[in-house]
Amino acid sequence: MPYIETKTNVTISKEQETALKTAFGKAIGIIPGKTEEWLMLGFSDSERMWFAGDDAPAVLLEVELLGSTSDAVYDALSAELTKIVCDQLPVSPSRLYIKYEEIGKWGWNGGNF
Predict the structure, then answer these.
(1) pLDDT at 113 over 90
(2) How many structural domains is the chain composed of?
């Protein structure tokens, strides 16, 4: 039940969104037990966003997952997500934050996990 929200102040084309979707679907497998089958994605582009005092291209990724994982897994996922985003969008790795949130309860299909 992972969810990745991509927020950025640049425009994301349909082609870039599709490429991000595909790459995120593969990358989520870095987390043991997580697959694209359960991955939900959200994209918010052209946002008013400032980082380090200016509005140059920047990205905030918010990753939520049911349960928890290790620091080593988060390190590997951060490296991969950064590569994916910087390959698709005109943003420097130094202007990309990734926020992780571990969720204890998650509802789906009228029930809860």
Answers:
(1) no
(2) 1
